[in-house]
Inverse folding.
């Protein structure tokens, strides 16, 4: 049997991946916050850059579009299988108390959605994790069948949506009036999200099968020892597929394919790019090297991933929305790109500094600690090792 690297090296790579995924999702969501009409304007095409900034905005948005969300989804799958293996090593049943953990994540996500961001992913991950936790109890053959079926269903739905979008007549962007993002109070935005619950949760429903597939991909890649030094051939194949083949196609679709191309990229090629990103990061640390300056910065965010994900959205809400500092309403086509880039840098730096300071005193982030303690209370002390992750991870 091939000797494996120490768990500290293996899990250091996972923390870097998770941190990259969290900051990468910020790179996508930051454009939603700096749009004066929020998610509605972002989807509707209002608030775009003008002049020479327009192509810069298009490239920057496409760089993050769907890729880091895919990476984060894969990391959830890896975290789930780590918890399963931890339970099995201790002779404990699986999924055991995990449904309680998923329920707490669902509760966190519901609050996060209502209070701060209508594009929350935590509720979707809670539902997906609950489904996949039971799938992981089946044999490998059954898991592969689930994976193939999930991918097939997702591609079929994507084809139908793309066909509908391609055949729909082009419409001029519509202004949101009244605009609760710029002019409303904190309560107004909460009510707005509640009133449009189904609309804002459509993506969670649409990508459920894709999320199941990516969770299972993550579990299987971890089982295939993607982090080990002797799995270079596997990593190179994934990097070839994701970064050499899928990435240029993804940019071509996003930049030149219109609305249909954006959909094909975000929900088609971007998840493949995410696999390539995972393989590239794993390859860098496969020889057991310690993270450098960048790696340590990402690791601290990754170790407190849940807390950093929520904190980044709280900070952006305060800065951009009308109930806070109202930054988005002050931007126009000539300023939205540079200001958004500066805001991304400032929020990223804040997450890195705060997470590093926190983790000097505590072994997990504040929301991770609350979730862990909640699971202990709900499942009992005799089951707490089932619900506690083997490493700092989410779910």
């Amino acid at each position: 049997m091939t000797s494996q690297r120490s768990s500290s090296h293996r899990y250091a790579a996972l923390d870097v991946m998770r941190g990259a995924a969290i900051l990468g999702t910020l790179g996508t969501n930051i454009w939603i916050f700096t749009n004066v009409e929020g998610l509605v304007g972002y989807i509707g095409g209002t608030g775009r850059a003008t002049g020479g900034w327009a192509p810069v905005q298009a490239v920057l948005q496409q760089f993050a579009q769907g890729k880091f969300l895919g990476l984060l989804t894969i990391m959830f799958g890896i975290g789930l299988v780590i918890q399963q293996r931890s339970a099995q090593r201790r002779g404990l049943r699986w999924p055991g108390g995990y449904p309680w953990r998923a329920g707490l994540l669902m509760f966190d996500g519901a609050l996060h959605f209502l209070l701060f961001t209508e594009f929350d992913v935590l509720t979707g991950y809670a539902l997906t994790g609950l489904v996949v936790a039971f799938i992981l109890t089946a044999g490998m053959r059954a898991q592969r069948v689930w994976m193939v079926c999930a991918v097939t269903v997702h591609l079929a739905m994507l084809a139908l949506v793309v066909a509908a979008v391609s055949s729909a007549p082009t419409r001029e962007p519509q202004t949101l009036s009244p605009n609760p993002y710029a002019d409303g109070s904190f309560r107004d935005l909460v009510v707005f999200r509640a009133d449009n619950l189904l609309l804002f949760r459509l993506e969670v429903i649409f990508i459920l099968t894709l999320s199941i597939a990516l969770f299972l991909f993550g579990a299987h890649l971890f089982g295939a020892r993607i982090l080990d030094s002797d799995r270079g051939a596997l990593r190179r194949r994934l990097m070839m597929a994701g970064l050499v083949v899928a990435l240029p196609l993804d940019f071509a679709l996003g930049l030149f394919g219109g609305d249909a191309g954006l959909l094909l990229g975000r929900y088609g090629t971007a998840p493949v790019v995410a696999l390539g990103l995972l393989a590239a990061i794993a390859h860098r640390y496969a020889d057991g090297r310690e993270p450098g300056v960048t790696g340590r910065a990402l690791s601290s965010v990754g170790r407190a991933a849940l807390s950093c994900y929520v904190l980044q959205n709280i900070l952006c809400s305060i800065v951009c929305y009308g109930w806070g500092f109202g930054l988005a309403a002050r931007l126009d086509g000539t300023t939205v790109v540079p200001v958004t880039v500066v805001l991304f840098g400032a929020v990223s730096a804040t997450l890195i500094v705060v997470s590093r300071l926190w983790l000097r005193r505590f072994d997990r982030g504040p929301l991770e600690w609350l979730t862990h303690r909640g699971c202990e209370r709900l499942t009992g002390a005799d089951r707490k090792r089932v619900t506690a992750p083997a490493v700092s991870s989410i779910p």
In short: Residues 108 and 184 are 24 Å apart (CA to CA). Residues 7-166+183-387 form one domain. Residues 140-167 form the longest helix (28 residues).
